[in-house]
Amino acid sequence: MGAKIIDGKQVAASIRQRLKEEVAELAKKGVTPGLATVLVGEDPASQVYVRMKEKACGEIGIISKGIRPPADIPQEELIAQLEELNRDPAIHGILVQLPLPKHLNTAEVLKHVSPEKDVDGFHPLNLGKLLSAKYWDELPKFVPCTPAGVIKLIDSTGVEIEGKQAVVVGRSIIVGKPVAMLLLARQATVTMCHSRTKDLGAVTREADILVVAAGVPRLIKGEMIKPGAVVIDVGVNRLEEGLVGDVDFDQAKEVAGYLTPVPGGVGPMTITMLLANTVRAAREAAGL
Q1: 67 and 162 fall within a common domain
Q2: C or N terminus of the chain, fewer CB within 10 Å?
Q3: Within a domain: 285
């Protein structure tokens, strides 16, 4: 029997409908969530991502403010613009689209986004709270959006995370490390793998829950998956035949119990969790 395909679009749509209703309730209290999207330069891929985020904001009633500094902006000027957004009461969330131009220090720039408006979850204070959280209720207000979306997708299957063996392939600060911390906070036993892991398949075959974010097309083959496992494929790789994930979908669907497709799996959840963080930031700022 083949894997049940986890429909990320459907899960995202359900969450967005709930957020739209929440935004409408906030409007009755005189609160309209506001998100500032800061896009430095004219990177085509980043422009597409930001347009998608701004469109999603409009669909649920969040006000989106686009900030478009030139690619050669000095770091001090960019930080000054972020500080201005920190002081703006109409802006509840600030998103700095990555990657930044090479002359800018990304870590230093992100430090100047207020932790209370850090809807991407990458401020050192929020990352530190994520690392120190032992239980789910100890997590920071904002966690990185893609990892948060991964947890929602796992929950959508009805599979209990607590007590499960979870394996995360990839150790980036954007996906791998945060998703491992979230799984730990949900009481899974977590193993992290990376490019230096010896006999990767031997490790991944132990996983009840397998999250793959390695950036290597079709890295995970069918024989590397435990029968019945929940497999979340975060990878997006553009090949001649189109977009493919880090999991060999055709092989994995014959083995896994649940499986996300690429596209249409994790992707829709990332923006959805950004919206959720922005709505939460507005609610918190209003003391509601």
Answers
A1: no
A2: N
A3: no
208 an active-site residue?
no
Identify the band that residue 1 occupies on the pLDDT scale cut at 50, 70 and 90: low
Strands 209-212 and 34-38: unpaired
Q: Is residue 277 part of a domain?
A: no
Q: Are residues 242 and 183 in the same domain?
A: yes
Annotation says 120 is catalytic: yes
pLDDT digits 0-9 by tens, 4-34: 999 999 999 999 999 999 999 999 999 999 9
Task: Mark whether 111 is an active-site residue.
Answer: no
Q: How many domains does the chain divide into?
A: 2
How many Å apart are CA 128 and CA 143, to the nearest integer? 11
* pLDDT digits 0-9 by tens, 109-144: 999 999 999 999 999 999 999 999 999 999 999 999
Q: Are residues 144 and 203 in the same domain?
A: yes
Q: Is the dihedral of CA 108, 109, 115, 121 positive or negative?
A: negative
Range of the domain at 171: 131-267
Which of these is catalytic: 117, 118, 120, 129? Answer: 120
Q: Which of 97, 129, 233, 248 is catalytic?
A: 97
Statement to judge: residues 224 and 137 lie in one domain: yes
